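chain below, 287 aa
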Amino acid sequence: METIWELDFYSRPILDENQKKIWEVLLCESPLDTRQPTDNLFRYSQFCPNQQVNSIWLREALEKAIAQAKQTPKKIRFFRRQMSNMITKACQELEIPAQATRRTYTLELWLQQRIQEFYPHQPGYEPSAAASSFVRYQPQTPQAMPDALQGEQWTFVSLEASAFEEMNEWGIDFGEAFPLSMRGIAPDTSIPGIIVFSSRAKPLAAWMSGLELVYFRFEDSSPARLLLETGASDCWIMDNIKDPKILAQAKDFESAKQNASEVHFLAVQSSPTSETFAGFWLLQELK
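prediction:
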């Protein structure tokens, strides 16, 4: 199985003896399916003095992490767009593709945990600086969905969380998942989703696989619309919703997301009678 890492390199709410923020690199493995054990996922952390923050230091930290993991990741994901140049340069020197994306679910949960449980117990902790250790970028203006990403029909559906235990046995051409246990989701929780049907299902799923799918959200505006968030900042208009019945379903979809820790899914099939998936992705909106 391929290995993908998630990376954050930024200042932390910890001050050194000169009252300068200490930086830190965090690296963690992305679980890629629902059955992957989470207790042995690779994690690496290293503090960096403020005066040494550069791509050379980051590259050397990556080399240490690779030596410790005894493998090189196929790709590294990161969510801080302002660190793009430094992260990309360090990764390029190691011939590792770097991808700016908000699909860094494991990293963001780990960072939240460290903000709440780890940093407050470190010497030099500065509570007023804690907020800057995390970031939420403003959504970009939604764009029309490219023709290559449009199916012929779509519908809202749901599956019980327990069903995903068998996801490895489903016929799926393109996709990615994660263990629902990491989100504390009970087996009987209803996980909402969207299925897109297309006669060109496999090419459609192939296109989607390169977008770094992040999450769907329903915008109850005028007109109401279903939006697909991808990559570092892209936002696509899946559909403008006018039908009152579909509008009610969209609102139920958002409610079901909230009940499932914002976890949901996207599936791509050739037809409603198909027994396989051209694409299937578990998604999550982190707030």
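The chain has two domains: 4-133, 143-284. The helical segments are 55-69, 84-93, 105-118, 201-209, 244-259.
thats it, cya
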